[in-house]
Amino acid sequence: MPRPIQATIHTASLRHNLARARTAAPDARAWAVVKANAYGHGIEAVFEGLRGADGFALLDLGEAGRVRALGWRGPILLLEGVFEARDLETCSRLNLWHVVHCEEQIDWLALHKTHQPHRVFLKMNSGMNRLGFTPQRYRAAWTRLNALPQVDEISLMTHFSDSDGPPGIAAQMAVFSAATQDLPGERSLSNSAATLRHGGEVVETGSGSLRVGADWIRPGIAVYGSAPDFPEHDSGHWGVQPAMTLASRIIATQELKAGDTVGYGSRFTADAPMRIGVVACGYADGYPRGAPTGTPVLVNGVRTRTVGRVSMDMITVDLSKVQLAGVEAGFGSDVTLWGRASHGAVLPIDDVAHAAGTVGYELMCALAPRVPVVVET
Hints:
Layout: E1 6-10, H1 11-24, E2 29-33, H2 35-39, H3 43-50, E3 55-58, H4 61-69, E4 76-78, H5 87-94, E5 97-100, H6 103-111, E6 118-124, H7 135-146, E7 151-158, H8 170-180, E8 187-190, H9 192-198, E9 202-205, E10 208-211, E11 216-217, H10 235-238, E12 244-256, E13 261-262, E14 268-269, E15 274-279, E16 296-299, E17 302-307, E18 315-318, H11 320-324, E19 334-340, E20 346-347, H12 349-355, H13 360-365, E21 373-376
Helix pairs in contact: 1-3, 4-5, 7-8
């Protein structure tokens, strides 16, 4: 039989989470962000759950081709634009919309031969200081694009650096509003955190009022069931559901006495007799190697903890806590590393990531190719 570890993608949860994002910004259209192979879930695996979106947003041409191959004929947006001039040929062939964030991309467009003008999203660096034109150069970039026959409609966008907490979005909203005042075109501002926290708000700036949700929202992590502002709020607060469950089984048990150690480096020492279970899951499956003793895990639906170091193929978990809850656990017991247990209990991926000193994004994206993936429709 195959090794018992498995990831399950929950189509109904994806639909629910997308609807939740729409509810937060009811006047906006929604991009389903599927970059990084749909945050590790698999583009093909999430497609049915997210096809109710108005468009798909991603990074590279290969992923765009996969979305088109699934039968999607609506908008697809390249969030970082093209990386070399010849990529524009693929944009023309696949009818891709793309972000323009630097002068070089405008230069390439000016030389591109196409029968069908391109829809572009002109990105402003309103304070994130990654991609985009500064507010002082933004209008000149818009003017250059607007003069090109290769360009059709120009949409306006930016990306918030602090939408998940202080100092918030007000300063960047004001910068964006001032620099785009009177420029035509649809706006796209909000990632998951801005959408859930502020999507329905209208912000008054010195240049007028601006809806945070604007014309297009870009929900990413929230669509996959993680809270974008954890630990201030958890997934339950935002009403989003896990889109991925990583589950395995106990393949062995050990009875420890006080003073016994567990795993490489003997990092865990039992201070009393206890029972542990060995789980078929390790860092080669994408489980975080840095997860310390105490990282939460569900065994037969009961929340307990890991003990000792994470190995390549195995982790060890405390079964004494499960037995104290009145639940039997041993060889073959169900183990939920994150997501939804068959018993109905939920272990948010954010809880595991927080214990391991990382974020849910990383755990999702780190799911290893050797883990079988099934889609629950």
